Amino acid sequence: MVAAGNAIDKHEQYKRVFAHFDEDGDGKISGSELRRCVAAIGSNGGGGGGRAGELTEEEAEAAVGFSDSDGDGLLDLEDFVRLVEAGEEEERVKDLKEAFKMYAAGAGDGGGVLITPRSLKRMLSRLGMRRSATECGVMIAEFDLDGDGALDFDEFKVMMS
């Protein structure tokens, strides 16, 4: 039941953000309103420097065009939610790729593209968790969909979800 409550809370948050940036109150967000939204969010905690929190007019219009479900050139609440959640998913995948690289480093596979029992043991040891190579192999086997004894990125994503 907690998960349903969190989903409602999140949807309410989206509604509040949407209403705040729907400057003319028409129930739609234009490209220029989206630019101001991204700039405000970026300046309040985007971090990272560079162009974080910036969106060109062309980028804003492209984002609206990509997410606009009814073809009116504007985002309604549902379009806005899909756009925000797509960005969150993109960020989550980016974070998972960074974590995957740390676990796959030193796997001996020629490029850190697989998490092996050896590389998992090494990473867990760095985190203060002592496990044998056999224990690590058992952990990997649980999510090793292709049976090669190692985890590729797609298998790692399944494991982390």
UniProtKB/TrEMBL annotation:
Pfam families: EF-hand_7, EF-hand_8. InterPro entries: EF-hand-dom_pair (IPR011992), EF_Hand_1_Ca_BS (IPR018247), EF_hand_dom (IPR002048), EF_hand_pair_protein_CML-like (IPR039647). One of its GO terms (molecular function) is calcium ion binding. PROSITE patterns: EF_HAND_1 (PS00018), EF_HAND_2 (PS50222). Residues 9-44, 55-90, 131-161 form the EF-hand domain. Keywords: Calcium, Metal-binding, Repeat. It comes from the Eukaryota. This is EF-hand domain-containing protein. It comes from Linum tenue.
